[in-house]
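Quick one:
INPUT:
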C-alpha cells in the first residue's frame, strides 16, 4: 500500500507540474499572438481546450499505453515512474527541440530495450529525421527521405516510410530490412491537437515482435505535444519579429507589419466576431508639396505627421506606412462609427497644428469595417476606394464605405 501511494503521489506531482507549465506557456503564446492581456489569456482564452489538456495530463499515467511500460519491461514501479518523469522533464525543458528529441529517443530505446528509435517530421516533399543519434547510421537511417521516390526496395525503411506518408497511416507494424539485418518495425503517426492530419512519425525497431502498439501511440502524443509547443513558440517569435519591423526613414511600422496585423485580426474576427476597422490616410496635395519643397523638408513633414498621429491614437491601434505617400491605422475592436469619430478627431488635431517650414496641412481619410462576407483583399480595397472618394471631394474629408 505504501509503495502504491508513493507511485500515485508521484503521478499526481508530475501531472501537476506539466499542467501548470502548459497553462502558462499556452497563455503566454495567446497573449503575444492575439494582443490580449495575460490575465484574459490565462483565464478566458481557449479555456475548454486547456481544461481538456490538463485532464489528459492527469489521466495520462492511467491509460493503457502507460500501463504497458510495466508489462513490457523488467523495471520496478518506481523505475517506471522515473522514466515517465524524465520524459516529462525533457518535454517541458527549455533545451532545443532536436536535443529534446534525442533525449526522448534515448530514454525510449533504453526503457524498451530496442536498438533504434527515430522521429521524422513531414515536409512538403520529404520526411526530415529530427533526431541525430550516432547509432542511426548503423541501421542506414538517412537524414531525409523522399516519399515520392520510385523503385524503392520492398520492406526497406524508405519503402515503408513512403507508404506510411502517402497513405496517411495512423499505425503500422511490419518487418523492416536494414543494413544491419531484419527488424520488427513499429510506425506511429504524430498528430497535432484538434487535427486528424499527421505531421510526422515515430519509428521503433525491435529485434523481436512485441506488443508495442499502445505504448508507441502514447509516446506519439507526448512527442507531438512537444514539437507543437516548439512550432508555436517559433511562430510566435517570428510574429513578434515582424511586428518590430520599422520603415527606415519614418520610424513607423511598415506595410508588411500592417498586413500581418490585419491577417491576425481577420482570423480573430472569424473566430470571435470581434470588430476591426481600417483607416487609410493621405496628406492632401502631397504631390504639390513635394514639388514645392525639398525632399528633406517633405520627409521631415511626414516624420512630424507620423509622430503626431501615433501620439493621438489608442495603444491597441497601429499606425504605419501604407504606400509611399499613404498611411493607415489598423484599429482593432471598434466599428466604423468609432473609426469615423477617430478620423474626425485627427482632422481637428491637424487643423490646429502648424508643421515646420510647411505650415498647416489637411488630410483625406477613407475607412471601413470588416464584414462577415469580407476577405482580406476586399476589406483593404474598400478602405482605399473610400480614400479615393474623399480625395475626389477636394480633400479634408472623411469617407466611409461599409459592406452591408
Amino acid at each position: 500500500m505504501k509503495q502504491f501511494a508513493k507511485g500515485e503521489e508521484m503521478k499526481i506531482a508530475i501531472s501537476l507540474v506539466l499542467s501548470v507549465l502548459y497553462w502558462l506557456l499556452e497563455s503566454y503564446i495567446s497573449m503575444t499572438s492575439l494582443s490580449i492581456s495575460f490575465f484574459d489569456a490565462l483565464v478566458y482564452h481557449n479555456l475548454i481546450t486547456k481544461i481538456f489538456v490538463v485532464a489528459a495530463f492527469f489521466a495520462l499515467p492511467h491509460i493503457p499505453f502507460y500501463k504497458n511500460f510495466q508489462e513490457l519491461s523488467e523495471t520496478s514501479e518506481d523505475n517506471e515512474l522515473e522514466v515517465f518523469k524524465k520524459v516529462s522533464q525533457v518535454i517541458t525543458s527549455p533545451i532545443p527541440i532536436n536535443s529534446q528529441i534525442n533525449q526522448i529517443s534515448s530514454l525510449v530505446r533504453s526503457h524498451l530495450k530496442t536498438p533504434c528509435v527515430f522521429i521524422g517530421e513531414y515536409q512538403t516533399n520529404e520526411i526530415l529525421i529530427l533526431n541525430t543519434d550516432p547509432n542511426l547510421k548503423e541501421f542506414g537511417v538517412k537524414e531525409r527521405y523522399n516519399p515520392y521516390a520510385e523503385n524503392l526496395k520492398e520492406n526497406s525503411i524508405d519503402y515503408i516510410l513512403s507508404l506510411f506518408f502517402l497513405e496517411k497511416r495512423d499505425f503500422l507494424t511490419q518487418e523492416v530490412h536494414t543494413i544491419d539485418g531484419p527488424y520488427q518495425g513499429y510506425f506511429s503517426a504524430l498528430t497535432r491537437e484538434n487535427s486528424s492530419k499527421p505531421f510526422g512519425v515515430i519509428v521503433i525497431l525491435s529485434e523481436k515482435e512485441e506488443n508495442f502498439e499502445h505504448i508507441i501511440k502514447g509516446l506519439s502524443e507526448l512527442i507531438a505535444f512537444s514539437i507543437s509547443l516548439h512550432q508555436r513558440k517559433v511562430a510566435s517569435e517570428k510574429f513578434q519579429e515582424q511586428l518590430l519591423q520599422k520603415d527606415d526613414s519614418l520610424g513607423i511600422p511598415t506595410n508588411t507589419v500592417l498586413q500581418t496585423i490585419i491577417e491576425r485580426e481577420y482570423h480573430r474576427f472569424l473566430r470571435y466576431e470581434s470588430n476591426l476597422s481600417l483607416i487609410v490616410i493621405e496628406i492632401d496635395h502631397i504631390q504639390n508639396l513635394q514639388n514645392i519643397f525639398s525632399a528633406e523638408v517633405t520627409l521631415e513633414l511626414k516624420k512630424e505627421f507620423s509622430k503626431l498621429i501615433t501620439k493621438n491614437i489608442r495603444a491597441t491601434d497601429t499606425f504605419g506606412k501604407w504606400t509611399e505617400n499613404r498611411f493607415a491605422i489598423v484599429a482593432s475592436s471598434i466599428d466604423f462609427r468609432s473609426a469615423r469619430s477617430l478620423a474626425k478627431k485627427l482632422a481637428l488635431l491637424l487643423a490646429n497644428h502648424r508643421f515646420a517650414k510647411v505650415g498647416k496641412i489637411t488630410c483625406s481619410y477613407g475607412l471601413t469595417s470588416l464584414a462577415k462576407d469580407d476577405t482580406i483583399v476586399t476589406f483593404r480595397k474598400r478602405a482605399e476606394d473610400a480614400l479615393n472618394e474623399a480625395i475626389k471631394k477636394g480633400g479634408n474629408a472623411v469617407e466611409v464605405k461599409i459592406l452591408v
